[in-house]
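Key result, reporting period 2: structure in, sequence out.
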């Protein structure tokens, strides 16, 4: 029997509710959720140390006051814009490694159990060249093993690696995810796990229908994905829609099917984090309204 915990990624608060007490109070009182995955879009880990640590202190104090658990820390839209650990230039890869070192330090100060997210993207030139692609994957695995050692030394339980819907951003297929997990964990210190996003099964490079099926991803790899990102989507793109009546009519993500697939995977425990991203132009009252509707919808399935 799988234990399911419903939570939210606080990406919804980015630029709208920048102060910790704001988004924590909303999470606890309006959304009525007790578990959060922290997005580094709200606090760049390379912020000046004094300012960063003050924000972390304020976050922990407010979370304690409102009974909120911050489970993990994750990359957001800002980091997703970069090549990070697979940049073709070694100096830029070194800089990306420095960013992740800072992310691990910040995550440790937040007292979370895991850190991760989008880790790397190859350029088209590197991806097209088989030898260069193989080299870049090897480099990435070494970098992740190093970060797993730093995570272990910092008191974190695991690193989280998010599969992406782009072939240049491995892993993007089920078989690739299995193989890369096997390879990276051969020399890892803290275990490297996945954070599957149910909206990422939409790769235009996919050649197997299973790779376009979010439930196949969950059945095959749910036991290796202690966190799952939940969004409504039509399976054609990475939508990050809310679970409102409008989007549920066209969306393919059904809570009962998600839970069933994770049960079939043999997973013991999964944190289901709603990762709903509204346009920045969206009205704040509508953002909160649709988040609340989405939370209530999932609470019918996850107690």
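The corresponding designed sequence is given below.
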């Amino acid at each position: 029997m799988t234990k399911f915990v419903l939570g939210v990624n606080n990406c919804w608060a980015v630029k709208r509710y920048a102060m910790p007490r704001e988004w924590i109070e909303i999470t606890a009182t309006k959304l009525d959720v007790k578990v959060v995955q922290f997005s580094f879009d709200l606090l760049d880990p390379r912020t000046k140390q004094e300012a960063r640590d003050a924000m972390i202190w304020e976050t922990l104090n407010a979370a304690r006051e409102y009974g909120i658990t911050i489970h993990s820390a994750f990359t957001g839209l800002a980091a997703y814009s970069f090549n990070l650990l697979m940049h073709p230039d070694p100096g830029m890869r070194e800089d990306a490694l420095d960013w992740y070192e800072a992310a691990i330090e910040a995550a440790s100060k937040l007292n979370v159990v895991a850190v991760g997210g989008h880790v790397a993207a190859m350029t088209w030139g590197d991806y097209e060249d088989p030898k260069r692609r193989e080299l870049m994957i090897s480099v990435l695995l070494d970098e992740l093993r190093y970060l797993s050692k730093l995570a272990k030394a910092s008191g974190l339980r695991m690193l989280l690696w998010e599969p992406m819907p782009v072939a240049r951003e491995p892993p993007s297929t089920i078989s690739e995810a299995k193989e890369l997990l096997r390879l990276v964990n051969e020399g890892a210190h803290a275990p490297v796990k996945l954070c599957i996003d149910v909206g990422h099964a939409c790769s235009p490079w996919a050649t197997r229908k299973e790779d376009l099926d979010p439930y196949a991803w969950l059945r095959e790899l749910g036991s290796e994905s202690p966190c799952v990102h939940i969004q409504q989507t039509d399976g054609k793109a990475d939508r990050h829609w809310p679970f409102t009546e409008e989007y549920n009519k066209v969306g393919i993500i059904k809570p009962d099917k998600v839970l069933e697939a994770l049960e079939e995977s043999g997973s013991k425990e999964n944190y289901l984090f709603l990762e709903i991203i509204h346009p920045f132009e969206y009205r704040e009252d509508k953002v909160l309204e649709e988040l609340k509707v989405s939370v209530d919808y999932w609470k019918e399935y996850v107690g």
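The chain is about 45% helix and 15% strand. The radius of gyration is 18 Å. This case is discussed further under Risks and Mitigation.
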